[in-house]
Amino acid sequence: MKETEPEAVDAPLRAPEVVQGPRPEAAGPGAAHPDLLRKLQRSVGNRAVAGLVESGRLRAPARRTLARAPVQVRQTASEPRVGGGTFGGSVRFDVDFSAFEATITVKVKLVPASGVSAADVTAVQATATAAFLNMWDNRFLITDQASHDQFFLRVNVQFVATGQHFTVALHPGNGRMDETNWSVGASPTDFAHELTHKIGPNDEYVDPTAVRRRTATSPGVFTDHSVMGNYPTEGAGLAEAKLRHAQEVADRIGRASSPHRHFTAAYTLSNQGERLVRWRGIRDSLAAGSTQRAAAAAEVTAIEADLGIPQLSGLTGVPYAPTP
Ligand SMILES: [Zn+2]
What we know:
33% helix; 8-stranded mixed β-sheet; alpha/beta
């Protein structure tokens, strides 16, 4: 939940849920750069590496535009309230670009309330960091639409005493969570949710006081295991950062860059592998013939297509047949 804020700028852009494969580019003259190749092989797998090698883009990174200083995103998120005004919060993070990575850093100053021990603080820092990294780190690739340079989106949380992007009061027990108040007893997904607000995305659960989320069929409501949705009901262990969230973050990074850049977000193949297992489980847990099952089956089919499973099935003599 976001606190009220009068400004309304930088409304998040929504991107279609499109998975982007390797670009069909003419082969270039460059030889593969062994260090970069090894790095990619550790993180995305053969298909993406093969695509980059074929496109001639695995050259030494000398031609790439590298930022000398971090890109500083200093924006707001807002959405209209029923009866006027907006919900909103600050969106602040830094992005360091290296040859193949765009690393987001969120700096948080935790201020423990009375009754919160030093051990509680340490535990919350560890839990929140692990949850945010599990939700976001290496889950997405962003591609510069002009240069076609690609970067793995990495994330990092730093708990600091000064120089923070955000100050958060840490309370004992298991009370309510919001962007400026955390509770020691909150779930890992709750911490991932609040930290995700810090990089841009809004809530996606039903809220009668939010214009775009009044009812279950409102345009701002999603029931697709979103970390910004109603995950306590849908299953906290199944919550994920969605491609629309990554596109919003990519848009924010592009707007904060000088000159402005336009990025397209895609799932990494390692993430798609994990998502395939997760979404097959979701599909199989739902009643045959239900609309929810059909939606989950469509998600599985889309992931399978992205991973090349229909073609692989054909090659091994097993005709591909999506499970309904
Ligand atoms: Zn929220």
